[in-house]
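Methods: example folding runs. The two proteins below were folded one after another, and each record is reproduced exactly as written to the output file, sequence line first and structure-token line second.
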Amino acid sequence: MWLITTTTILIALYIILIRIFKAGWKNMDDFHPHRRIVESDIKVSVVVACKNEEKSLPHLIQGLRNQSYKDFELILVNDHSTDHTAQIMQESLSRFENAVYIESDGQGKKAAIAKGIKQASGELIITTDADCSPKKTWIQTIVDFQIQNPSHLIICPVKLSGRKGIFSHLQQFEFTSLTASGAGAAGAQMPIMCNAANLAFPKEAWLKSQKDLKMEEQSGDDMFLLQSIKKRGGIIRFLRSKEAFVETEPAKNLKAFVRQRRRWAGKSTAYTDWHLIFTACVVFGVCLAQLLLLIFSFFNILYLYIFLLFFVLKYWVDTQFLNEVSDFYSLKSVEFYSFCLSVIYPFYIVFTAISAIVFKPKKW
């Protein structure tokens, strides 16, 4: 009976968390730029760290060329690429009025981004990844938001591009559940997640947090920055605007997807923010409890009924939340994909979490 009692407590905590995220989401208004931006209002530097991105980088370069906000500095940092990435970056410099190419002398993405930020001359830093495609109004919307809502960290929206196939759609829903939860948490004044694929912050704020970025970890430049700013009482906001989206490609196969998620989970032991730790423990606990109930049901039918009850309850709560954010993230067939994700999620979370901690990834 201890398992039933524990699962009941975990499910109750999970429902409370999801309701907090949902309330936080509702607490934020959609941001619509309504003033004519004077491009000299804020000096902007866009920092991109690249490693073996020869196929994706040209799309990002074109997206940056198409920006409605032209007065920005572009910092391209090559992180020891072994393909034609460096050549593409160098050839792209002439397409911008103010662009800089840098070779990273450190190890990993975090070191590359740090070097780019240090060299940037802009007061507002915007980071993205080489495999992202920004909307035409991306920089303009972020700048206008910062002018109207001065922040130490702006969490900007990211979504996966809509490839065909059930695997890609499942990734889209899983990724949305993470990013929307992070957005809702920020709206509830308890930010726990962000993504360097679309992040903005004053350079001064980053410099103050530099000592907290845990350079010994292979990644986490975004999450450790959030934790540091949050710890010292900085202002962290989510930019709820479709005009500020960047899109990124889903993983091409299951192996690439698992490797990416294990890399994300691998740095979890270095987190110190109790909001994030509590949320992660509850989610992991619920998934583990579901698996244990399923295993125990082979020996006692009562556990099967309890498993089904909690499965339906969690599915209902998750689907409500995904329906709430579906318009913003362009989700379709929410009930179907939420059900599929509910079936897979316990196995995926438990495996990813345990394997990432036991066999910590060494590469990004």
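Second run, written to the same file directly after the first:
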Amino acid sequence: MKILHVALGSRSYPIYIGSDVLNQPELLTKHIKSKQVIVVSNPTVATLYLDTILAHLKDYVVETVLLPDGEEYKTMTSIMQIFDHLLESKFSRNATLIALGGGVIGDMGGFAAACYQRGIAFLQIPTTLLAQVDSSVGGKTGVNHPLGKNMIGAFYQPQCVIADTSVLNTLDNRQLAAGIAEIIKYGLIRDADFFVWLENNLSLLLNKDPLALAYAIEISCKNKAEVVAEDETESGVRATLNLGHTFGHALETGMGYGTYLHGEAVAIGLCLAAYLSKQLGWLTEAQVQRIITLLQQANLPTRPPKDLGCEKFIELMSVDKKNIDGNIRVILLKDIGLATLPMDINHDLLTHALTTYGR
């Protein structure tokens, strides 16, 4: 087992990474401060892992709430179901919420924990690759709105993250690829050596090689933990973790939540960001092709859908947390392994990129 730390002073916490760590109950129970525990999951994940968690909690008062799975259900309606259970069970502010599932469950569970009685403790147990390498770490929580993804939420750190690599054996190929998109992002924004490693070892990840997966998760979490420790609330360098996300979130919103998996939309966004970086003279054509090729080899989409028009795309990009005073701001690349801070992109340049790349 590897133990990484997100260094945030009094809000610091460990990330446990390893095979079969879900069967180490002490990793869970030492972060629970009272007898009241609510486990938030979805039916698919619960069928596989809920009994294991409940067996560790036999000495606690436990409530379970199962929410429907998918980005289309990442709403305030789902959050209210969590609040209903907490209130009906008369849970106090000393209760602990455990988010057992992928990124959707983690985001909603964390947001509910941040809001209930102005904040209760919560633990992240991510069960998808994307959640293990990205959404479970760093304290971003929230829900979607029909007009914009993740526009309602809070920064709220967990007590710990328990990333069991053995649960990835149950992932289908599409979910696996979606997680790999976020892994590739880390190589692009700040770790060129890791990007080269991914080029040389992608087949091992696609075949769920346990050592390769553990290494990729560790390096991804290490990169994210360092960035979050430097900039918890995204006032500076943390924004670089959103490479490809302004494009990707617009795709998810415009095509309907659930049409694209988050990692699939981000993959297209990474390609658009690389293409725009080339248009500005920062990346070479060869570098752009390396990025596109790696994403394609990971079985990820690399072209935006033709039925989302350019003007609609830009309109959706205008609803983004990085934007200031109505200006669309995106993260681009000065080199593989070197991302820019958010920068304003004028309408004409953005239009040119969207109408010439992959159309």
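Comment on the second run: DSSP finds 13 helices and 13 strands in the chain.
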